[in-house]
């Protein structure tokens, strides 16, 4: 700051600079939170895709006859396999626990998970939009403060 500026003006500019720095820090925190929300959105999106694929597979595989299928073994490599008639499905509940369910019960389980994921996706999208709006407000406030400091 120049020595030609009166002390009152210097104090005012220092206060504006401090407030701008605080707002920049707040914006950085919001940006980090936004990145976390976007990452969680991608995870939920992958879960929805996987659940829909499971639903389609359960609906498609015949309960009465054997079906030839491809089984992934990793890194994009598949082997041909025969799937026996599917009347029951194993559903992983987590913590190393799986239970056997009928096709209909397994399908209901998958569809319920899809609904849960859809709700989570909508909530994350609302959070993302709110964060984006708040970050834009902070940027507008910073710009306004800088313009006022330059004009004053």
What is the CATH class designation? Mainly Alpha
Q: Note the main sheet.
A: 2 strands, antiparallel
Secondary structure: helix percent? 55-70%
Secondary-structure element string: HEEEEH
Question: What is the second-level CATH architecture?
Answer: Orthogonal Bundle
- The tally of structural domains comes to 1
What does this structure look like?
- By secondary structure, this protein is α+β, with helices and mostly antiparallel strands.
- The chain has a single domain (7-151), classed as Helix Hairpins (Orthogonal Bundle).
- The protein contains 2 helices and 4 strands, in the order αββββα.
- The strands form 2 sheets. It has a two-stranded antiparallel sheet with strand order 1-2. It has a two-stranded antiparallel ribbon with strand order 3-4.
- Helix 1 (7-60) packs antiparallel against helix 2 (103-151).
- The longest helix has 54 residues, at 7-60.
- The two termini are 14 Å apart.
Can I get a quick summary?
The protein is α+β, with helices and mostly antiparallel strands and about 150 residues long. Helix content is about 70%, strand content about 20%.
Write the layout of secondary structure elements.
Elements lengths: L6 H54 L6 E8 L2 E7 L4 E7 L2 E6 H49 L1
Antiparallel strand pairs: 1-2, 3-4
Structure characteristics:
about 150 residues; alpha+beta; Helix Hairpins; two-stranded antiparallel ribbon; 2 helices; about 70% helix
């Amino acid at each position: 700051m120049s020595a030609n500026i009166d002390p009152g003006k210097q104090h005012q500019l220092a206060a504006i600079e401090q407030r701008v720095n605080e707002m920049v820090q707040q914006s950085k925190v919001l940006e980090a939170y936004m990145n976390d929300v976007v990452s969680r959105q991608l995870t939920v999106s992958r879960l929805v895709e996987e659940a829909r694929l499971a639903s389609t597979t359960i609906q498609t595989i015949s309960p009465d006859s054997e079906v030839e299928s491809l089984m992934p073994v990793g890194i994009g490599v598949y082997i041909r396999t025969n799937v026996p008639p599917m009347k029951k499905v194993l559903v992983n509940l987590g913590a190393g626990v799986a239970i056997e369910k009928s096709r209909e019960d397994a399908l209901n389980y998958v569809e319920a998970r899809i609904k849960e994921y859809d709700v989570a996706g909508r909530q994350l999208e609302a959070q993302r939009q709110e964060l984006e709006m708040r970050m834009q407000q902070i940027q507008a406030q910073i710009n306004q403060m800088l313009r006022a400091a330059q004009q004053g």
